[in-house]
Amino acid sequence: MSNYLKPWRVLCLLAALLPFLITTNVSLAQDAAGGSVAPAAATAEPAKEVAAPTAAEAPTAAPTPAPIATGDLKIALDTMWVMIAGFLVFFMNLGFGCVEAGMCRVKNCVNILSKNFVVFAVSTLGFWVLGFGLMFGHGSPYLGTEGLFLASGEDNSPATMDAYKGAYDALKWTGVPLAAKFFFQLVFAGTAATIVSGAVAERIKYISFIVFSLLISVFIYPVVGHWVWGGGFLQTQGFYDFAGSTQVHSIGGWCALTGVIFLGPRIGKFTADGKANAIPGHSMMAAFIGCLVLWFGWFGFNPGSTMAADPIAIADIALTTNLGAVFATLTATATAWILLGKPDIGMTLNGCLAGLVGVTAGCSVITPVGAAIIGSISGVAVVFAVMFFDKIKIDDPVGATSVHLVNGVFGTLCVGLFASPEVLKAHLIPPEVCKPGLFYGGSEQIVIQLIGIVSTAVYVLVVSAICWVVIKATLGLRVSDEEQFEGLDHGEHGNTAYHGFVVEKV
Predict the structure, then answer these.
(1) 158 preceded by cis ω (within 30°)?
(2) How many CB atoms lie within 10 A of CB 412?
(3) How far apart are the first and last CA of the chain?
(4) Is 172 exposed, middle or buried (0-12, 13-18, 19+ CB in 10 A)?
(5) Eight-state DSSP code of residue 139
(6) Closest CA to 195 of 260, 266, 272, 261
(7) Which mean pLDDT values do the consecutive 10-residue runs of the chain (506 residues) have?
(8) How far apart are the C-alpha atoms of 22 and 418, rounded to whole Å?
(9) Helix, strand, coil percentages, rounded to 5, for the chain
(10) How many Cβ atoms are within 10 Å of 356's Cβ, its own excluded?
(11) What is the C-alpha separation between 469 and 463, in angstroms, rounded?
(12) Kind and range of the H or E element at 227?
């Protein structure tokens, strides 16, 4: 074949000629339809005076396109923002997978990655089939009872407030379409299920984790979600959790804690006298990448919870979110340096996540100074929490309970400590609880926040314990000691994360 006729050269030539061919075809089509002007004759005749056309003969002017209604434009912008924010939260699955895999041993890397990949598919199934209806459907103060299955109840989008007549009454304050509401809430439900993965890593059966992920997305997350965001009893009392310190993080944390208790520690984690042995992760590079992805995704998690393209609110929330992460990163690093003698990278990364969790509940109602204080305390708290759980023989390989449970509870309480009463009133919190308190918030608000924390803890601990007990009795929870020694990648998946490398069996 001639060098000038090679396929790639022909393709490049066609690509270069494509705009010309398209333009030519359009022009020919216009000519065929009589839409083009005939070329001037080569020998033009002398100009003749032409009479002006009558009104009947005058060409009809092209209709002026109707302007886009302001309401339609707002719905479009709000929907775009909600979906983009939802995509960012979905992307956080990569962050969780990298953090957990990096902080665990190489022989369990495939297992952790597979769990973090499948968990979103499983939680999507559960939340779509029943969870969304239980969470947002009309019903009692404790559970949704209308529009239960397949998110198919009448929604009446994009009507809002008094004009809203749909089944998902708790979502009437936002005007985006039902599919956008569902997707944004779905990625939050998936996040709560993913939190459990890291805490139970390196010894749980793959099938048992999958089944629990389905159960949390149907019977645990949506029920509390109805109380908090679905018009349930906590929301009507004035409980405030803007983006999920309780609804997402502490739910995942309580489920993780019960799972760790029923599973027991990994082989070799604790000595006979109860001393905790360090079991280093295999890739701090992966953990670093994962944490940075989570930090990035949080700018969808918190600002996206506005459910509207409100520029001032989005910017303010992004600021408080970032300040929480920054100050927690610094204080966690300093605390670990003081207590452990070295600035431990694992503590630094978990400190960043702790600060993000801490500001999530109140990010829309706290000042930047309040966010800095919350982040600073969260960074210190996560280091002490990791040491505390080790002391009581709770084996959490990635520190999920320290990050999400401890700081989810703390962040929820901080709404009553640092929120501006005026801003709380603007969020439809009952006026009687919006009184100045210890710092910016109100003493009554602290009580309501505590009621929400305790209610969530009791329900999640009881129901998740029942789920773990049933799974343990039917499928079993823990892999064999031999499989734990060999690694779950080999025993559960017949695979390795890094082919050709020697895996240390410890």
Answers:
(1) yes
(2) 29
(3) 60
(4) buried
(5) B
(6) 260
(7) 45 44 41 39 43 51 58 89 97 96 95 95 96 91 89 83 84 89 95 94 95 96 95 91 95 96 93 88 96 97 94 95 98 96 95 97 94 97 96 94 97 91 71 60 82 97 97 95 92 88 59
(8) 62
(9) 65, 0, 30
(10) 32
(11) 10
(12) helix 221-228
Are 345 and 286 spatial neighbours (Cβ–Cβ below 8 Å)? no
Q: Is 270 helix (H, G, I), strand (E, B) or coil?
A: strand
User: Which residue do the tokens 């048992």 mark?
Assistant: 208
CB 146 within 8 A of CB 137: yes
C-alpha to C-alpha distance for 143 and 238, rounded to whole angstroms: 18
The answer to whether 336 and 399 are in contact (CB under 8 A) is no
Indicate the residue type of 69. A
- Give CA–CA dist 444/237, Å, rounded: 11
φ/ψ region of 479 (left if φ > 0, alpha if ψ in -120 to 50, else beta) reads beta
Do 202 and 260 contact (CB within 8 A), yes or no? no
Burial of 433 from C-beta contacts in 10 A (0-12 / 13-18 / 19+): buried
Other Cβ atoms within 10 Å of 277 Cβ, number: 11
From CA 464, how far away is CA 87, in angstroms rounded? Answer: 28
Whether the predicted model's global pTM rises above the 0.70 cut:
yes
The residues, any chain, with a CB within 8 Å of residue 24's CB and separated by 6 or more, are none
The three-state secondary structure class of 413 is helix
